[in-house]
Amino acid sequence: MKLLIEGIALFLIVETNARWINFPIEAIQGGHDMWRAYSDMREANTIGADKYFHAKGNADAASRGEGGKWAAEVISNGREWVQEKMGHGAEDSAADQRANEHGRNGGDPNVFRPAGLPPCSSESHED
């Protein structure tokens, strides 16, 4: 019985550590997802599409795992903090954060996609 309990404890410790080993990799991949969403937004250059790209970047990053979700939150909060300090409107920042959270929490980014937004170049070759 003691051996069984020790085996279970060892399994839980190893499994927990294995997940945390992936955290930095997921965070880097999530940062890349956020950059890709920003690049796609710049490429699209479509008025009213920013909330879609906020949600898409956060959703893609969060889909990587806890590290990606963390990266998306840090990047999104940092961006909104900078925007606020530069004098951008509080209402727009709050709407951006709602889109960020929607994507990060598994919501469909397409609810923010404006009509007529063409597919971005990265959408044709998702990784």
Automatic annotation (TrEMBL):
Domain of life according to the entry: Eukaryota
Coiled coil ranges: none
Keywords of the record: Acute phase, HDL, Signal
A biological process term (GO) from this entry: acute-phase response
GO cellular component: high-density lipoprotein particle
InterPro entries: Serum_amyloid_A (IPR000096), Synovial_Prolif_Regulator (IPR052464)
Presence of keyword Signal: yes
Signal peptide interval: 1-18
Start and end residues of each stretch annotated as Disordered: 84-127
Pfam families hit by this protein: SAA
Its biological purpose: Major acute phase reactant. Apolipoprotein of the HDL complex.
Family statement: Belongs to the SAA family.
Protein name as catalogued: Serum amyloid A protein
Species, as recorded: Champsocephalus esox (pike icefish)
